[in-house]
Write a structure and sequence with these properties.
single chain; about 350 residues; mainly alpha; 16 helices; about 0% strand; elongated
Length: about 350
């Protein structure tokens, strides 16, 4: 997770000012709600709502005690709130978020932003939409892109309307900037990884002993390829962090699909002739990329494709070693190799093999 968060933070730089200045006067991002409201219209409405909720105080019982603070040093409210890599604990998540809100650093989805979700959703506390609005505004107009702020407040105000059906609140549902989008994508990947690991554990647990023993070696090789594969991601846009995360997720999802097929009867099957034909098609696609006209792929260069291709060969071999440990016969091995080869060819051709 740390690598992805660093990449998301790297997207800030010179692009954050542009991403957060949408709809704000030429002078740049607003530094007060009065300045924010000068845009008029919905901006003025949101500014008025935030100013009206600024002095609300949370219930004292909701605040972390000194002992809570001592036990939550270096905590991460999101991992506690969503149960990422640990058991979910919304009470500790709330306490942690209060601690985070008093600091200067941290994820743009923690601290006050997470507290808004806690009160909006009534997770471990009495549902309080006014308190949710207070925390959604607490970081001021500099805390997020203007359209993100407006989306959050308008959603919460709509939830207050008489007869409104309950909808869970999530700041990521209102993300408009590449900066916040990177963190939201990172969180989504972490949540997806929790479920993926559960599925893999169930699959591998039912395998023969030699295959179970071989899986950790394969998993390490797969992770190496997942990282290498991002060399083919264009990093020139403001959403580059999200693009990297989405690419990593796609490779892992394809891997899970293959693992499910490996353990299924007749999951893979190909003749030597069919595999040879797939190899020829892949080689032709690779030659075209390496020697033909080079389209504008942003930051991606031919050398990057070459590196990924080399990494893919090791990835393919790791798959075949795992399949052998699983007891695969030659026809199954050829079928697996063909499936991997077809996937890679489709990537080089710029298509989608799903």
């Amino acid at each position: 997770m740390q690598r992805r968060v660093m990449m998301a933070a790297a997207a800030l730089g010179a692009t954050l000012a542009a991403a957060t200045a949408i709809g704000v006067r030429a002078g740049g991002q607003a530094h007060s709600w009065d300045e924010f409201g000068k845009e008029g219209g919905d901006y003025a409405k949101v500014a008025a709502v935030c100013k009206a909720h600024a002095k609300l105080a949370p219930p004292p019982a909701d605040l972390p005690s000194p002992s809570d603070r001592a036990g939550l040093k270096s905590c991460d409210s999101q991992t506690l709130y969503f149960g990422i890599g640990r058991s979910q604990d919304v009470t500790r998540a709330r306490q942690c978020a209060y601690i985070e809100a008093g600091g200067k650093d941290g994820s743009p989805l923690g601290g006050n932003v997470l507290l808004a979700a806690v009160y909006a959703n009534g997770d471990g506390v009495k549902r309080d939409l006014d308190m949710a609005i207070h925390f959604a505004c607490a970081d001021g107009p500099e805390g997020a892109a203007p359209m993100e702020i407006m989306g959050r407040i308008e959603f919460l105000e709509a939830q207050k309307a008489a007869g409104a059906a309950f909808e869970r609140y999530d700041a990521c549902d209102h993300a408009t900037s590449g900066y916040l989008g990177g963190f939201c994508s990172s969180r989504a990947q972490d949540l997806g990884e929790v479920e993926r690991k559960k599925k893999i554990a169930a699959l591998v647990g039912a395998w023969p002993a030699p295959a179970r023993a071989a899986y950790p070696v394969f998993a390490k090789a797969e992770e190496t390829y997942v990282t290498a594969h991002t060399d083919e991601v264009d990093l020139s846009g403001t959403a580059r962090a999200s693009m990297v995360i989405e690419d990593e997720t796609e490779v892992r999802d394809k891997g899970l699909e293959l693992l499910q097929r490996l353990g299924a009867p007749h999951g893979f099957s190909a003749t030597p002739v069919e595999l040879a034909s797939a190899d020829q098609a892949l080689n032709a696609a690779y030659r075209k990329v390496m020697t033909g006209p080079w389209p504008d792929y942003g930051t991606v260069k031919r050398e990057d494709v070459k590196k990924v291709q080399r990494a893919w060969i090791k990835y393919r071999d790791a798959w075949l070693a795992l399949a052998r440990a699983h007891g695969a016969d030659q026809r199954t091995l050829d079928g697996l190799a063909k499936a991997l080869t077809d996937q890679r060819r489709t990537e080089l051709e710029g298509g989608d093999d799903k």
